Amino acid sequence: MASGLKINEDLARERQKCTFNVTELTHLLDNGEKVTKQKKHFEKTLFSIKELQDEVPEIYLSHKERYENAVRKACILQKVRRDYEKEHEILSSRNLFHAEYGVIKDVSPFFLHRGMFVPTIMGQGTPEQQAEWLPKAQAMEIIGTYAQTELGHGTFIRGLETTATYDAKTEEFILNSPHITSYKWWPGGLGTTVNHCIVVAQLYIDGKNHGIHPFIVQIRDLETHNPLPGIQVGEIGPKLGFQTANNGFLGFKNFRIPRMNMLMKNAQVLKDGTFVKGMNEKLTYGTMVLVRVNIVSDAAYHTAMAATIAVRYAAVRHQSQLKANQPEAQILDYLTQQHKLFIAIATSHAFENLYRLLWQQYLKVVEDLGKGKQDHLPELHAVSCCLKATASRDSAIMAEQCRLACGGHGFMTASNLPIIYGFCTAAITYEGEHTVLLLQTARYLMKAWTSALEGKVLAPSVAYLVDWLKADKQRWNNTPEAMVRGFQHVAAGKIKDAFDAIQKHVKAGKDFEDAWNLASVQLIKASEAHSRAILCDAYWRETVRSSATVSSSLAAVLNHLLQLYLVYWTLETVGDLLIYSNIAKEDIAALKEKYEELLALIRPNAVGLVDAFDISDEVLQSALGSYDGRVYERLMEEAMKSPLNKEPVNQSFHKYMKPFIKAAKL
Amino acid sequence: MASGLKINEDLARERQKCTFNVTELTHLLDNGEKVTKQKKHFEKTLFSIKELQDEVPEIYLSHKERYENAVRKACILQKVRRDYEKEHEILSSRNLFHAEYGVIKDVSPFFLHRGMFVPTIMGQGTPEQQAEWLPKAQAMEIIGTYAQTELGHGTFIRGLETTATYDAKTEEFILNSPHITSYKWWPGGLGTTVNHCIVVAQLYIDGKNHGIHPFIVQIRDLETHNPLPGIQVGEIGPKLGFQTANNGFLGFKNFRIPRMNMLMKNAQVLKDGTFVKGMNEKLTYGTMVLVRVNIVSDAAYHTAMAATIAVRYAAVRHQSQLKANQPEAQILDYLTQQHKLFIAIATSHAFENLYRLLWQQYLKVVEDLGKGKQDHLPELHAVSCCLKATASRDSAIMAEQCRLACGGHGFMTASNLPIIYGFCTAAITYEGEHTVLLLQTARYLMKAWTSALEGKVLAPSVAYLVDWLKADKQRWNNTPEAMVRGFQHVAAGKIKDAFDAIQKHVKAGKDFEDAWNLASVQLIKASEAHSRAILCDAYWRETVRSSATVSSSLAAVLNHLLQLYLVYWTLETVGDLLIYSNIAKEDIAALKEKYEELLALIRPNAVGLVDAFDISDEVLQSALGSYDGRVYERLMEEAMKSPLNKEPVNQSFHKYMKPFIKAAKL
Questions:
Q1: A181 lies in a domain?
Q2: Do the Cβ atoms of A310 and A298 come closer than 8 Å?
Q3: In a domain, B447, yes or no
Q4: Cα pseudo-dihedral B562, B564, B567, B573, rounded to 10
């Protein structure tokens, strides 16, 4: 990757100090050497295409130019990826997807075509409907998105306002947006890009509401791209991130679509207007779960990007003296810097390990569903809700921590950290708002607690409640196992507290719903504690498992990271542990020392650990984080690309400043 | 403000419920009715100028166009403000400054002219130098900035690399940037705007280094604006925020300036090259302290902006049902939403109260310095370091919490919350990096602890250490006073722990510097706890004081906010309190209930409280937060301004998508 480039001397020295085989860890993280090789091969194919390189960096373009440039590149990218997929058996589509960051830098306007439009047809269309639309969609003869959220409704999808009224005479649905709040708002690509979309709307037949259903709707002429009559469509404007995602709005005025455009794998509307209820509506849960499990993987990747940039920069940057009359120190040698960065490395590992376990569970549930068994779906749903919430929140915090650890330079777009933060923080809200998801899990936890009190056998993710009720509280001992148990005790204690709070309000005469609302801050905290317990448990178990499969030098490093993660969160939540576990003040003092020891153990491997994430410079897009460590040269090179630096004097001097200064003199 | 507009019904209802006089609170926050009136008068003057309104919103322009538009508006703004200042006695220059948000939206490229260039000439120039440059600078015949930070050096200013070498033959200094890392990097306005700057450089005379000193340097021709020979200047490119600040870089190659361009109020270089050391170098501390105290005020204002937007939106937005078959609830009625937003309101009040106390202390120190007394400067320096760090960090957290509480719409630039976050988070780094400042305060705290152990009398801000040593630990009782004392106990305990950690390492044979580094995570935490103790103490005392001057209905509300703040932070840091104070588990349970009661008490006044911040729509710039609550209409109006929505089909369809789709069919 870095052949021919002069590597910054500090980085070279760091790489020599590393105690483990970086490539071995890369293969472990990628899930096998073959996957790593394919990733590199695809990236080489993609990044060698000259037309994908921008003459002027996107960030200097106007909003409109930036969109146009993104469409240009997205078309090339789709073609390259399609050809590649024809010629190769794809080992990890996530790896291929990550390479797109190196092209689009931000989000492709075609993103939801592959991400939601095609999967929805696959998941909710009948075989006939699939035969009709899938080939065209997969060949991208038609390009679509998924339009659910409205200006006035996000979370509460039962409240969506767009109507699809069946007209049996013509066998058509008539789509309408009755209020301004009914406009679809947010779907990626909807603004000016797609010609089709899945529209989620309230179905009305003969004045009777039958709930929300998905419809496939053509919104633009395929030849001219003009919006069809009855369609009002446009883009919603700039955002904190996702600048090229082309998020759009969409309104309908008596817009007619054929009856067969309702996706009818579940519920159906017959010709005469008879409504046939779906049999297995829970199946649609499966897609939601999948999306949330993938967000855990995204969180791992984005955290790895941020950590890579900040750790390499901290190795290159020298500032202040650790001792008088010594040269300025690498900032990576400051304990406060290690405190900020090493937890980010460990967090990425924790999410990656969690993702693997969730993925296994997801496959199991899908297999079960195929056999008509739905037993494990509620648990997986509850687990994926709170872990999506926690992983997205943690990754946003870690990305910001890494950015701030780069000082002023982290504030520059050229660091890429602001853009990474945009990705991370968006995930806190999309695909299930943070607080709403935590409360969904809390509902499951309240039921689980009731079952535990009734002495029932619980699902694995909440089985710790039974242990806790048995008061099986072994003495705290600062081992990974004991710390994991401690987090479970905290979760159990908070679940009990929230449950009791609800009961107290109910006993005082409140409705259950009011009691639930009054206890909701505590319910959130219970759900968060439950997430942390699952996350720590999963990370611990997976590390024990994978450590047995790798060299002893790598196993040692994996173990350092795991311990760092557990000790960090023990110290962060020590108040909870003091209340709900039997940790003692001496344990805490010992853990503070242990934490400092772990930082020292990880220090020589810090650069090796981020190198092992194996994120190429093209994907990382960071002047601060490149493999060669040419931080200052790259910052200057990036600045020189600014159109303002292409001319000695900007016209605004003559137009505005000079007259202003002259007037001041009078 | 809102006359003639139709007010959203929910907001109107909220305003009727309010239990206190909103105007009374506005006057209290503004420091008097006259100040409020002047604010409104200036805003009316400013916002009625048609040329200041953008045809196309800035966010749609290219980087270069955006800059040019900012210069255009900044010139008009400067003229308006100058004229206004000539005609009026300015009661609060901060209020006038806030109005600029309504014009520039972001940061003016002239920002540091007034903010740093002029003050530095005033603070560090001799009377002759002031006579030479101040009139021109104040009339803006010359426009300047302050160039200290370099590509390779921020925090550690002793390490700056730019050199100013005295040439006694010509009585000139020769400026040079010996390495790429020596380039000045970051100064606002430096890129393509200013023609002068203060350059901080290492002074060399006859090969001997005399440390860093400020020089006034003309960098561009006043007539042509061309960079002068020997000057390389340009802009550094886009950032997370501050897009129109025109931050720049600057390099020198044998650039000569006259001897009298060294600002010589302190140190001097005589004609023959004799170096005369400055007598009162601590005076320059004063400016740093002032800037940091002002950042606390900025934090109050930015938090108020974010809270105003999120609270009004939460009153307008309905989502989900609190109870089955009821209409969807205002999201402000969800306890989890109150938990996110009310602490933001209280935080703004806490910072505002703290700012007033710090400002009084600052004036006292300046008065003392005038009399040659420097006794209170070290304490104020220590206090301003950690409180700048804490206030900027807290305001960034609160701004993000408010943004996330607005769901997807908070992610839109039209909410203005992303831009407010940019302001808040930038302040964490500029004017003293967060961690560095906390460690500066920690140094003061370690000295204070030593003095306490020696039985000496301590400065007021650390006097609690003496009480703590006396083991004067009254029983915790959930009153404001006891909570404040609890925060002081935590701070004292953490200061002691950090001190002991250093001692332990020293006893184990480490150098003091190594021991300091090893204990630095604990030192940071001690410094943070000290900040929280001061902040809570100041907020409590000021509220008690100001409550006596206002109506009883307002006093009650101020007291609710104060209590909310104290209880919130007690619960957030309960682990520390369990270790370092004598809080009991029953107290914690009672405080959780108290917290929920306080949310309920504040709920009817939430909209009134943010109305009382009295931030006009023009300044707030938020589709979600406007006074009239026309949230959805404004979101749509803003979106319609996008150039992509001015044409039915974007050219990228014909240029890229159509050929791509056709190729797919083949």
A1: yes
A2: no
A3: no
A4: -100
- Name the residue with tokens 């446009």: A234
Question: What residues are paired with A172 via a beta bridge?
Answer: A167, A258
Q: What residue numbers bound the domain in which A153 lies?
A: 112-279
State the residue for tokens 């560090």: B124
Between CA B85 and CA B96 the distance in angstroms is: 10
Of residues A199 and A377, more confidence is placed in A199
A141 at B interface, C-beta within 8 A:
yes
Q: What is the pLDDT of residue A488?
A: 96
| pLDDT tens digits along B586-624 | 999 999 999 999 999 999 999 999 999 999 999 999 999
Query: CB-based contact (8 Å) between B93 and chain A?
Result: no
Q: Across-strand partners of A155? A: none
- Number of structural domains chain B divides into: 2
Residues contacting residue A24 through CB under 8 Å, at least 6 positions apart: A550, A551, A554
ipTM (interface pTM): 0.97
> Is the pLDDT assigned to residue A430 strictly greater than 80?
yes
Tell me whether residues A664 and B183 touch, CB distance under 8 A. Answer: no
- Measuring CA to CA, how many Å separate A79 from each of A49, A74, B167? 12, 9, 65
Per-residue tokens: B558: 């101020």
Residue pair B602/B342 in contact (Cβ under 8 Å)? The answer is: yes
User: Shortest CA distance to A241 belongs to which of A416, A76, A115?
Assistant: A416
**Is the per-residue pLDDT at B279 higher than 60?**
yes
Instruction: Round to whole Å and give the CA distance between B432 and A38.
Output: 46
Q: Name residue, tokens 């777009």.
A: A413
What CATH number is given to the structural domain containing B124? 2.40.110.10
User: Residues of A with catalytic annotation?
Assistant: 431
- Partner residue opposite A64 with nearest CB, options B226, B644, B656: B644
pLDDT band at A666 (very low <50, low <70, confident <90, very high): low
Question: Residue A1's pLDDT is what?
Answer: 42
Average pLDDT over residues A189-214: 97
In the stretch 610-649 of chain B, residues with CB closer than 8 A to chain A read: 632-633, 635-636, 638-645, 648-649
In a domain? residue A174: yes
Position B318 confidence tier, pLDDT thresholds 50, 70, 90: very high
Question: Tens digits of per-residue pLDDT, B461-512?
Answer: 999 999 888 875 667 889 999 999 999 999 999 999 999 999 999 999 999 9
Quickly count helices (H) and strands (E) in chain B. 27, 11
What is the arithmetic mean of pLDDT over A156-164?
Answer: 94
CATH label of the domain that carries residue B585: 1.20.140.10
Cα B89-B94-B96 angle, rounded to 5 deg: 60
Q: Taking all residues of chain B, what is their mean pLDDT, rounded to a whole number?
A: 95
Query: CB distance from B585 to chain A under 8 Å?
Result: yes
Residue B2 banded pLDDT, cuts 50, 70, 90: very low
Tokens read off for B251? 């390099």
Lowest mean pLDDT: which of B90-99, B232-241, B295-304, B468-477?
B468-477
Cβ–Cβ below 8 Å for A72 and B652? yes
In a domain, residue B458? The reply is no
- CA-based nearest distance B645→chain A, Å: 6
What's the whole-number mean pLDDT along residues A114-126?
92
Of A242, A336, A410, the CB nearest to B521: A336
Is residue A251 pLDDT above 80, yes or no?
yes
Rounded to 10 degrees, the C-alpha dihedral A449/A450/A454/A460 comes to -40
Q: Does A180 touch chain B (CB under 8 A)?
A: yes
Q: Tell me, what amino acid is at B65?
A: E
DSSP character at residue B655: I
Q: No. of H helices and E strands in chain A?
A: 26, 11
Backbone Cα Rg of chain B: 27
Task: Nearest by CB to A154, from B408, B418, B524: name it.
Answer: B408
| Chain A from 370 to 389: CB within 8 A of any B CB | none
Q: Residue B90 and residue B38: Cα distance in Å, rounded?
A: 8
